[in-house]
Amino acid sequence: MTDQASQDDKIAETPFGKRRVKLRACIVERKHHVRSLLCEAIEEQGFIPHACATLDDLDASLCADFPDLIVINISMNGLPVPHILNLLASRSSTGTVLLVGPPHAPAVRAARELGHELALNLLPVLATPFSDCDLHASVAALVPADPPPPPVDVAEALGAGWLELWYQPKIDARSLSLGGAEALVRMRHPNWGIVPPAHFIPDKGDPHFRALSDFVIGRVFQDWRYLVAKSGSIHMSINLPLAFFTDANAIDDLRLRFPDHPAFDGLTVEVDGSEVVRNLPLALEAAQRLRFHNIGFSLDDVGTEWPALAALDEFPFAEIKLDRQFVDGSSSARLKRSVCRRIVELARSRGIRTVAEGVETRDDFIAMHGIGVDFIQGFLFGKPMTTRKFARNSRQRPTFVPVA
Where are the domains of the chain? Predict the structure, then answer.
């Protein structure tokens, strides 16, 4: 055996070498908008989706990709379902089949009967309309508990075009209307699917951190232009390291990239509160300069740092975000609730807004609403989502309601 062959074998045996880590899903649907919706929904369940608009597309996918899950949407004007099922049988597909449609419709019942006759591996029908919870219940058993991917070189991710921004809504605590969105970076890896930032965000001192910050700035304005055309203007927040502002030209460069659009109302830059406390002179200078360009400086993840912030004579900041570790469970933990209340009182005394992060339960929402938080952010009102999904949701839900 050659050295190269031996090396290939070793790679194939590793958890994250050439072996596919995330399961593949093939979405079979003629209509583009339905394919897109199904792909988004399946991706959120941990699959890497691939769309097939024709039988030829499906045939090619079965030959080349061996999908683990085949999702077939049954509709009046869709692809002929008997042809799809017979093609799966003729190709000896080992993938699991998920039929999507009204379970009592004659076409759905006929498809199930044919699938059983062809000895295909069928899941129970996913009834339409379905929720994320319904889809999760249908496919959860197929998704193995794989270990997380190893750290990825951010330069590789940038060069390969794997990075994108997802958006989580900020909800007005009183009106429950959309009050803004925070941009959160994600990696769409060809083998691992959607990867959270913990596995590719470089250390603050890494030379690639500036390149990542430049990507975030460029993409957020690109996405803002898309959102304003699809669903109206939305105030954006981005995360930057405090070290970004050590460059004397950083703020001017940021301002020059603003969209030239009458609806653009500025930007909020979120910086970790502990970084700010460690380097107050730089943070204060940056916040003062940013204000003149309609850029708000937000103190992110503020918890035990609040006494140091309360001692400041000048306070050029625009927002304080309460650390999720004090928000989560605050409804039943008096000490957490007390810290949150002190932070809100500090913000109110300085005339700035507050955001509670990590709100996942109704009880915690009620607790945060009770102490006077201005905005709510958390899974109770919406997880981070792609730009398209965010545009669609903000069009459909002018008033946000808890999702759990």
Answer: 23-142, 154-396
pLDDT of residue 246: 93
* pLDDT tens sequence across 205-250: 667 788 899 999 999 999 999 999 998 999 999 999 999 999 999 9
Q: What is the DSSP letter of 92?
A: T
Taking the C-alpha atoms of residue 70 and residue 77, their distance in angstroms, rounded to an integer, is 19
Indicate whether 378 pLDDT > 80.
yes
Can you give the pLDDT at residue 346?
96
Place of tokens 């730009």: 387
Contact present, 32 and 44 (Cβ < 8 Å): no
| Distance from C-alpha of 384 to C-alpha of 196, rounded to nearest angstrom | 11
What are the Cα distances from residue 110, in Å, to 76, 103, 127, 346?
Answer: 14, 10, 15, 64
Same fold? 23-142, 154-396: no
Asked whether the whole model's pTM tops 0.85, one would answer no
Distance between CA atoms of residues 312 and 291, nearest Å: 18
Q: Give the domain 23-142 fold.
A: Rossmann fold (3.40.50)
Please say whether the beta carbons of 74 and 107 come within 8 A.
Answer: yes
Distances (CA, A) of 231 to 149, 267, 387, 389, 394: 35, 18, 11, 11, 7
CA 249 to chain centre: 31
Length of the chain as a residue count: 404
Q: What is the mean pLDDT of residues 70-91?
A: 87
Residue 48, beta-bridge partner list: 24
d(CA 372, CA 356): 10
Positive or negative CA dihedral for 32, 38, 44, 47? Answer: negative
CATH superfamily, domain at 154-396: EAL domain (3.20.20.450)
Instruction: Kindly list the distances between the CA atom of residue 276 and the CA atoms of 5, 145, 272, 318, 363, in Å, as whole numbers in the listed order.
Output: 52, 38, 7, 14, 31
Contacts of residue 232, defined as CB under 8 A and 6 or more positions apart, other chains included, come to: 263, 394
| Rounded distance between C-alpha atoms, residue 194 and residue 192, angstroms | 6
